[in-house]
Specification:
Number of helices: 5
Strand content: 15-25%
Strand order of the largest sheet: 3-2-1-4-5
Radius of gyration: 13 Å
Structural class: alpha/beta
Length: 139
């Protein structure tokens, strides 16, 4: 069974949206909510994550143990999310052998050139579609 970590911080809205859509589209996956704070983790758990943990150690510990890590592009940027995403978290996510599915949400001073501006729900839809296709190929 595919294990997917959804990483989010601050208010947890992107993580919540990802978890909800993943649960709808791929009900048999194992979703681990990894929040930089308890609020983000709580929202992802309420959205349907199987388990969750908060903080730097939780992200560092779990990043190498999943097949896919999903979240906004800020999860690979040290000190993004107003400093909630620590350099150690960014390093653990970036160095994880997991596939990274990054939503190019340009709020963390990371600009991806060539990405067309589309709404957050459309970005989440694209991310979940990629994960769905990847999981289908892994089965």
């Amino acid at each position: 069974m595919m294990r997917i970590a959804v990483v989010d911080g601050q208010g947890g809205g992107i993580g919540r949206a990802l978890v909800e859509k993943l649960r709808q589209e791929i009900p048999d996956i194992r979703i681990i909510a990894l929040g930089t704070n308890a609020l983000a983790t709580s929202l992802m758990l309420r959205a349907g994550a199987n388990e969750g943990a908060s903080g730097e150690n939780a992200i560092v510990f779990n990043a190498p143990k999943v097949g896919i890590i999903a979240g906004s592009i800020g999860i690979i940027g040290a000190n993004s999310m107003l400093g909630e995403l620590t350099p150690l978290m960014a390093k653990a996510i970036s160095e994880s052998p997991a596939h990274k599915v990054l939503i190019p949400f340009n709020r963390c001073h990371l600009q991806v050139v060539g990405v067309k501006p589309i709404s957050l729900p459309e970005l989440v839809e694209e991310a979940v579609e990629w994960i769905k296709q990847y999981c289908a190929g892994e089965s």
